[in-house]
Amino acid sequence: MIELPETPSMSLNGRKAIITGASSGIGLGCAVALAEAGAHVCLSARNSKNLNKVVKAIQAKGLNAEAITLDVSDVKASQEVILTNGPFDVLVNSAGSARHTPSKDTNEEDFDDVMNVNLRGAYFLTQAVAKGLIQNKKPGSLINISSQMGHVGGIDRAVYSASKHAVEGFTKAMAIEWGPYNIRVNTICPTFIRTPLTQSTFNNPKHRSWIEEKIKLGRVGEVEDIMGAVVFLASDASAMITGSALMVDGGWTAD
Q1: Are 217 and 249 in contact (CB under 8 A)?
Q2: In a domain? residue 8
Q3: What is the layout of strands, in order, in the sheet containing 40-45?
Q4: DSSP 164-186
Q5: Which residues does 115 contact at the CB level (< 8 Å), separation at least 6?
Q6: How many domains would you assign to the chain?
Q7: How far apart are CA 123 and CA 190, in angstroms?
Q8: Is 255 among the domain residues?
Q9: Are 68 and 43 in contact (CB under 8 A)?
């Protein structure tokens, strides 16, 4: 009789996940997806009012969720949250900042704001979660929400693109360092996803035309397009994947 291989499980039962930027958009979608897969999800964001509403809505579906008010640009606070509430089996770094201007008009305030959240905050939160896993001798899956702009450039996006290219870089380096501990580190790279953060871009006819021309599937992304990807990377179904970027870009970077 032939012994058939078994498909790895995408269940996250018994695992604890922390998702930043979880009060709206991609972060919210990731939190729902991980909770539906069985994880106990800790949603974090700066806006506690919106965050608590989201948590209650997830709990109303019979899923396990709690709220943690957190500004990821405050590194010390992030470290304390992880130390107090961890260890976490799964991290989704989804908190993000974007201030789009032509590169010749970039000012220091905008540059620092984007880098403090997208790069500095993500870097040290990933570090803190990994430390907790290593200290407790646990495996883990750490997922950074990057962007297609971490692989290409874009109109008025020099600072944002720089921050996401940097995320791709530290993700690969951390994957190499933490592989021996069975801690995987990957990125998800969405195209333009319809969220409150991107609505102003869609409202600009020039930018909307540029987006629709570049996405080969002929539509903009929706939050739901990210949800399956995050469960895949968080679960045992991706057990041999680390240091990689999962493109969810409708073919944007295929050129």
Answers
A1: no
A2: no
A3: 65-69, 40-45, 16-19, 90-93, 140-145, 183-190, 245-248
A4: HHHHHHHHHHHHHHHGGGTEEEE
A5: 159, 162, 163
A6: 1
A7: 19
A8: no
A9: yes
Q: List the catalytic residue out of 88, 160, 178, 192.
A: 160
Residues 148 and 129: their CA atoms lie apart, in Å, by: 25
Q: Does the annotation mark 181 as catalytic?
A: no
> How much is the pTM?
0.95
pLDDT of residue 175: 98
Write out the residue range of the structural domain in which residue 145 sits: 16-246
Cβ neighbours, 10 Å, residue 221:
23
Q: Give me the percent of the chain exceeding a pLDDT of 90.
A: 85
- Does the N-terminal peptide bond of residue 87 adopt cis geometry, omega within 30 degrees of 0? yes
Question: In this predicted model, what pLDDT tens digit does every residue of 13-44 receive, in sequence order?
Answer: 999 999 999 999 999 999 999 999 999 999 99
Percent share of the chain, pLDDT over 70: 100
List, for residues 61-113, the tens digit of each pLDDT value: 999 999 999 999 999 999 999 999 999 999 999 998 888 888 999 999 999 99
| CA quadruple 69, 118, 59, 194: dihedral sign | positive
C-alpha angle 53-58-60 in degrees, rounded to nearest 5: 95
Looking at residue 67, its amino acid is A
Question: Is residue 208 assigned to a domain?
Answer: yes
Q: Is residue 171 part of a domain?
A: yes
- The span from the CA of 44 to the CA of 18, in Å, is 7
Strands 65-69 vs 245-248: parallel, antiparallel or unpaired: unpaired
Q: Which residue bears the tokens 């078994």?
A: 6
Reading the block at residue 89, the tokens are: 């089996």
Task: Give the CATH number of the domain where residue 177 resides.
Answer: 3.40.50.720
DSSP per position, 115-161: HIIIIIIHHHHHHHHHHHHHHTT--EEEEEE--GGGTS--TT-HHHH
